[in-house]
Amino acid sequence: MNIYDIAEMAGVSIATVSRVMSGSDKVSDKTRKKVLSVIEESGYTPNVFAQGLGVGTIHSIGILVPNISDLYMAEAVSFLENELQKNGYNCLLGCSGFELSGKESHLHMLLDKRVDALFLVGSTYAGSGKSDAETDYIRAAAAQVPVVVINGAVKGENVHSAVCGDRQAMYDVTSSLIQRGRKRILFLTDSHSYSAQEKTAGYLSALEEAGIPVREDLMMHVPNRIHAVRDILLSLPDPDFDAVVATDDGIAVGAVKFAARTGRSIPQDLQIVGYNNSSLSVACEPELTSVDNRTEDICRGAVTVLLRLLSEKEPMPPSMVVPCRIVRRRTTDF
Amino acid sequence: MNIYDIAEMAGVSIATVSRVMSGSDKVSDKTRKKVLSVIEESGYTPNVFAQGLGVGTIHSIGILVPNISDLYMAEAVSFLENELQKNGYNCLLGCSGFELSGKESHLHMLLDKRVDALFLVGSTYAGSGKSDAETDYIRAAAAQVPVVVINGAVKGENVHSAVCGDRQAMYDVTSSLIQRGRKRILFLTDSHSYSAQEKTAGYLSALEEAGIPVREDLMMHVPNRIHAVRDILLSLPDPDFDAVVATDDGIAVGAVKFAARTGRSIPQDLQIVGYNNSSLSVACEPELTSVDNRTEDICRGAVTVLLRLLSEKEPMPPSMVVPCRIVRRRTTDF
DNA sequence: ATGAAAGCGCTAACAA
DNA sequence: TTGTTAGCGCTTTCAT
Question: Would you say residue B330 lies in a domain?
Fold first, then answer.
């Protein structure tokens, strides 16, 4: 069932059918009614490929994510999909993993499908910042379609970003801990990404401001798995810290487990702050104080930016920053 | 940059370029080399829409999910995407919500994009089973492309399914509790879906087998939010149960929180079993015994089924069942 | 307000 | 082994 069939059945030309489909006003009411009724009873649906061939787009947008089974990523994708769907776009999803090769290949698969734009979700796409070469493939992609990085900054023509104020948030929570008398604050992270670096910077600046010397042994890289973190902390010969700030809730929960195992009471002996305000933070006991990075607001903002870009309006500011919010629960005394 | 440009630059016809692109062996090595080098240096990528128009597919598969920010769904999508990508398919993602209208509209958006097949993830798509009308739209879709329901059974031509043995699993855990002397087992669920019904049936058959009368007040519907569940249990005038089986970890964690609030010790006073073996089950304290429904195996199997379907091999058995696995932790004494 | 016809870029059947 | 050409189904001028 194609447009020719419909045209014939309705006794009009294919051009008229096309006009009806696209809601053109240059069709008489009578003709429109007739065509619509034929379409209705025949169940006709236009062939997107033919449409795409003509106009160059089928209104789909690529979403690249390292790992959709991560709570944070999943939530972001959820918001993106909702907003995009509302605006008539479909989502092509790619799970790239954290390796550069996977990112590149998945990105090209999406590009090959002629998406109208790309979302890269997660600061892993911003690379470590050591070399621009890490993100060259993103700029190359941006030569074809607008790219919006969620929660990571990549510089380049046609590359936009929406991030949360990770540095400030980490500065805030660290400062709060210091104000409550903590001086040996363990910083736990699982990543070297842009956002991990931002968080690190926030942590360090809080220490510096308070005149507390930085201790290398209080800055650890760990995998983001509850038991792994717990065991690493348990294996420390001389655990010497009175607070923990983590770059993800999962890591923080590991610290909670560590406290439970070693008889440390929370928050008296050990204060703990998580990140992302995920369901993990409220599943554990005591429940985690956590930084809410406003995923929903960021994603909504990112889609707004993108839609404006696609509608060829005036250029957008290249990035937006949404401040984080601290959700206080029982693993801290502030 | 299109196939004509490449053909001209390589001094061959478009047919030859097309052959090279599709890896046909009916091209001389010399010609192939030449064409490939031109393609390489020009960065040519075939236009999928034109391809699609010709052959009727661009190798994309629709994945419909009620809510991707749910841990279980996200994991399933992750596995599906991985398997499909490996086999050269892209994924069009739709988040439909739990309302019929959303399901139908999202499903049509995917169909309109001419996907080769559809995955429906989650037993919500199987409806309540009260009326076939609830799932008619699925059968209608199946008239166009193969449909595979993950974790829910829908009957119909060209509708396949991959489910886990929920009924048996629930029977097993309930029986184990009974064997450990528990007689007042609270069943908590947040859904009326196919899988919820299966789980209910397992629970009931374990009671029946043990000759324990069913008590309506011990079968509750609750929202799947930790604090909500906790508060509902706390508000019970006369909480009279010595074990809890829940159809999701989030719900079970709510019961754990309830126990903590009311001074019940786990598992002595109250045994608790969760479902899905998610990270929540290991975040809470004590850690939850949970039913692992083998998402990965189910998804892998589902993709296998689908690929066979798409490659026009002999018809598949309409459904596969993967047995669940009980992961024992510290909220039970078995 | 409506129709005719020229693309859009590719695949595949057929010719050579 | 290679080239020619007829679709694939739609959009969009350009006429009328």
Answer: no
pLDDT digits (tens, 9 = 90+) for A1-59: 999 999 999 999 999 999 999 988 788 999 999 999 999 999 999 999 999 999 999 99
Report the distance from CA of residue B325 to the C1' of nucleotide C8 in Å, as an integer. Answer: 54
- In this prediction, residue B314 has a pLDDT band, given cuts at 50, 70 and 90, of low
* Same-domain pairing of B182 and B282: yes
Do A77 and A119 fall within a single domain? yes
Measured between CB atoms, which of A109, A114, A250 is closest to B279? A250
Query: Which domain CATH number covers B95?
Result: 3.40.50.2300
pLDDT tens by residue, B92-131: 999 999 999 999 999 999 999 999 999 999 999 998 888 8
Residue A334 CB burial class (10 angstroms; 0-12, 13-18, ≥19): middle
Q: How far apart are CA A136 and CA A118, in angstroms?
A: 15
Q: Is residue B129 within 8 Å of A109, Cβ to Cβ?
A: no
Three-class secondary structure of residue B279 per DSSP: helix
d(CA A158, CA B255): 50
8-state DSSP, B134: G
- If asked whether residues A7 and A68 sit together in one domain, one would say no
Which residue minimizes Cα–C1' distance to D5?
Answer: B15
Same domain, B231 and B86: no
A329 is a domain residue: no
The boundaries of the domain holding residue A299 are: 60-164+295-323
Domain containing B23 — which CATH number?
1.10.260.40
Q: How many helices (DSSP H) and strands (DSSP E) are in chain A?
A: 13, 12
A333 domain-assigned:
no
User: Which residues, at least 6 apart from B245, have a Cβ–Cβ distance to it below 8 Å?
Assistant: B170, B173, B174, B177, B185, B186, B187, B188, B203, B272, B273
Chain B environment of A227 (Cβ under 8 Å) = 282
